[in-house]
Structures are given as C-alpha cells and as structure tokens.
C-alpha cells in the first residue's frame, strides 16, 4: 500500500520540500493534492537522507504546508505513445491540447529517453532538403545531425522554423516515412497560433507533432517540454522506423527556466548565473539525436536559440557549439537590410555536410560549388571593407565585379520568399548563375571539368 504524506516543510517557487520520507527514488513522479481537491503533478529532483525536493510542473499558488496530501507514484514520468500522435497538438507535459482526446497505448515511454550506445551509432550520410538555398547549398542538413540555429531577439527565427517545418523533405526518390516533431518552448500565444495556422494552411499538419509550452505556463513545465518532444521523436524513429526532424524554439527559454529552478534550489551559480551542469543538461537533450546501425529510423535535431545581445560567446550558444555538429547563424546586418532569411553564411557551418553531398546524394558539382561560393563571398567582405576606405569608384574592375557578385548573392541566393520552396537542383543552378558575374579566372576552387560543364 502506497503511503500518503500530509505534511510539507515549505514551498519555494516551483519547488516543494519534505522530510521524513521513505522509499523514494530520484525522478519519481508525484501527485500533490491541494486542499481544494486539485491534483498537481511533480517529480523528485533531490534526495538527501530522509529529505526530498519536488519540482512541481504546475503553479504552486494555493498549496498549503498543512492541508495538502502527497503521494509518490513509484514510476518515472512517462507518456503513452502511438502513431496516432501524428497531426496532434500537446501541451508542455504531453497532455492533449486539441480536440483529439487522449492518446491510448499499451506502451508508455520515459521522457528522459534511452541513452544511445556510441558503438551502436551509424554515421549520418543522407541530406534533408529544407527548400532554403543558403542552408541546402552551403550548410546542408544531414539526416541524424544536430544543427542549431543561432538567432537574436527580434529576428525572424520563428518564421524560419515554420518554413523549415512546412518544406522539409527527404531526398528525391526516397519512399521512407518522414515526420516532424515541433516543440515551442516559452512562446507567446500569438506565436503559437502563427505556427499552428502556418502548418494547417500548408497542409503539413498531418506529418507534424506539436508540443507547445506558453510563456505564462509554470516554469517547471518548460524543463520537460523538450524531453516530451524527444520521447515522441524516439518512439516514431526507433519503434516505427520513421525519419524524424525535431525543431525546437527557443532553447534559450529552456535554459532560463533551468537557471530559475537552480536558483530556487539555492545551487552555486556558474557563468552568468546559469547552473554549473548546463553543459551536461544540454548534452542530455542534443545527444538523443542520431541513427542506429540496426534500425532504419533517424532523429535529426534542429534547435533554435536566441543569443542574448547577439553574443555568440554567451554560455548557451557557446556550450551548444561544443556539443553539436555546426551552426546556422542569423545575421543582424542582413536582417536590418530586409533580407529574409538573414542567414550569415561565413560564421555558419555544417561539419557533416562533406559526407552527405556530392554524387549519389545531391549532385556531383555541389561540394566544389559550395567551396567557391564561400570563397567568393569572403572576398566580397574584403572588397567592401576596402571600398569604405577608398570609395567604390576607385576600386579595380575585378573588385567591382566582386561587389556586384555580393549584391546578387544576397538579393537572389540568400534572400527568398517565406512561401518559396527551392529544390536542390534549382539552388545549385542559381549558384552557378550568380558565379557567372565573375570571370572564369576567379573560379579557382572549381574542377575545370565542372567549369566546362556548368559555367
């Protein structure tokens, strides 16, 4: 018979502390019944002899130290999952947030996931097409990769996330099941409505699973939202054999919730007040992406985070960059010049793209073309810096051609409409078209055979 405890020591923000507790496990789910009969969910986050600290997923207002009852469930936080979750919308704790009713399944899955044995991992190869030229050609997203998007306050990362969810698809000729798990963490209600409306209008909702945590939801719920989304992704990928793309916005909201709970626990803060275990906590999310040697499914992870004050050395983007395989950086200058999406390609990279592009994957000219576009755009920045000193009229003829190349590259290649979905071939052909702005003698990163065929 399970014990019911009737005495709480104290309530501090989202935390409840108790003493004289027996037989409790770390991470165990707890039911807290308030004096008005409402049951709130929580989990054990600290054990110290006979004292426990419980993190409450809902608002703790109204909880009394004397008139509340607490029951430990003797189980971890689990979700019932089946293929019926496709097309559904859930809240931050995995509860249905639409008119579809409860999800019924004989199997329940721990939201903390199952660690992937490094030996069992398969090296990512195939690419995922986003329909966005700057990403597909130059920062290619590879199936099974972790590729974060570094943004800033006020920039259109939500629009970019919605566009990727609407347009993402596997390479041509693939007949594998593809679906997207989308998690919105700490978003405003109008942003959540924008995401829903965007997916429904694009007829993409039937292959999307949404988890939405609002900005006015309890902070403790925010910590579980990405774990619920990743548990759903793991089920679809490794139980149903599907190819899953996980898109999350915004990881910064998650980290700030982690800092708030850490402060309430009176832990010693680290850089900028974040807990010292921020790196390992983020790794526990990011490392759930990947592919397995004996399983056809895959999880590709595209987290979006806003850099406070556009500071790429801030702890959140800094630690994320250590764990993931590259980054897509949105540029403030491009955004201010009304370019969408404002992808700044020079500090962006995809460390796995070299093994997932080229003949047999995208097109044989893709690797050389990407290298040449990077080199030419880097030269554009040098010429622009020189033009600010001596004036554009005094530049050499070849430098003026680089200025024209840079203008066309930004206006035609980087910039594209919110509804515009380019195939990989269209993107690569556009890259060649823009390179024709420069004389062939400047194309020193290209194989002469490719120049003869495509230039």
Automatic annotation (TrEMBL):
Residues 131-350 form the ATPase F1/V1/A1 complex alpha/beta subunit nucleotide-binding domain. It holds the Pfam family ATP-synt_ab. The lineage of its organism: Bacteria, Bacillati, Bacillota, Clostridia, Eubacteriales. Keywords: ATP synthesis, Hydrogen ion transport, Ion transport, Transport. Residues 10-72 form the ATPase F1/V1/A1 complex alpha/beta subunit N-terminal domain. Belongs to the ATPase alpha/beta chains family. GO terms for biological process: proton motive force-driven plasma membrane ATP synthesis. This is V-type ATP synthase beta chain. Residues 355-455 form the ATP synthase A/B type C-terminal domain. GO terms for molecular function: ATP binding; proton-transporting ATP synthase activity, rotational mechanism; proton-transporting ATPase activity, rotational mechanism. Produces ATP from ADP in the presence of a proton gradient across the membrane. The V-type beta chain is a regulatory subunit. The keyword Ion transport applies. InterPro entries: ATP-synt_VA_C, ATPase_a/bsu_AS, ATPase_F1/V1/A1_a/bsu_N, ATPase_F1/V1/A1_a/bsu_nucl-bd, P-loop_NTPase, V-ATPase_su_B/beta. The keyword Phosphoprotein does not apply.
């Amino acid at each position: 018979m399970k014990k019911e405890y009737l005495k709480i020591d104290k309530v501090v923000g989202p935390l409840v502390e108790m003493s004289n507790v027996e037989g409790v496990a770390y991470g165990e789910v707890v039911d807290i019944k308030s004096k008005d009969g409402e049951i709130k969910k929580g989990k054990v986050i600290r054990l110290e002899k006979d004292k426990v600290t419980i993190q409450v997923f809902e608002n703790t207002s109204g909880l009394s130290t004397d008139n509340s009852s607490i029951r430990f469930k003797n189980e971890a936080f689990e979700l019932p999952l089946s293929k019926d979750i496709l097309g559904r919308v859930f809240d931050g704790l995995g509860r249905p947030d639409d008119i579809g009713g409860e999800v019924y399944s004989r199997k329940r899955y721990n939201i903390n996931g199952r660690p992937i044995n490094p030996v069992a991992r398969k090296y990512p190869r195939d690419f995922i097409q986003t329909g966005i030229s700057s990403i597909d050609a130059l920062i290619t997203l590879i199936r099974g990769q972790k590729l974060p998007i570094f943004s800033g306050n006020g920039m259109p990362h939500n629009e970019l996330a919605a566009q990727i969810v609407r347009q993402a698809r596997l390479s041509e000729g693939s007949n594998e099941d593809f679906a997207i798990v989308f998690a919105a963490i700490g978003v405003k209600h109008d942003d959540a409505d924008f995401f829903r409306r965007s997916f429904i209008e694009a007829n993409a909702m039937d292959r999307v699973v949404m988890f939405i945590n609002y900005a006015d939801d309890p902070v403790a719920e925010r910590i579980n939202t990405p774990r619920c989304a990743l548990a759903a992704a793991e089920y679809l990928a490794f139980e149903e054999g599907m190819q899953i793309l996980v898109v999350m916005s915004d990881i910064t909201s998650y980290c700030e919730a982690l800092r708030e709970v850490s402060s309430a626990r009176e832990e010693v803060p680290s850089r900028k007040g974040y807990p010292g275990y921020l790196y390992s906590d983020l790794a526990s999310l990011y490392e759930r992406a990947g592919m397995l040697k004996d399983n056809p499914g895959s999880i590709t992870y595209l987290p979006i985070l806003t850099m406070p004050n556009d500071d790429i050395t801030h702890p959140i983007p800094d630690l994320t960059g250590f764990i993931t395989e590259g980054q897509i950086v949105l540029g403030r200058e491009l955004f201010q010049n009304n370019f969408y999406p404002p992808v700044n390609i020079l500090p962006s990279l995809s460390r796995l793209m070299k093994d997932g592009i080229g003949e047999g994957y995208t097109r044989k000219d893709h690797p050389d073309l990407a290298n040449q576009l990077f080199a030419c755009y880097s030269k554009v920045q040098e010429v622009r810096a020189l033009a600010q000193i001596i004036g554009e009229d005094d530049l050499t003829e070849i430098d003026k051609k680089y200025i024209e190349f840079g203008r066309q590259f930004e206006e035609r290649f980087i910039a594209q409409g919110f509804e515009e979905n380019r195939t990989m071939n269209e993107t690569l052909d556009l890259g060649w078209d823009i390179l024709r702005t420069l004389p062939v003698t400047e194309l020193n990163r290209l194989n002469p055979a490719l120049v003869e065929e495509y230039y």
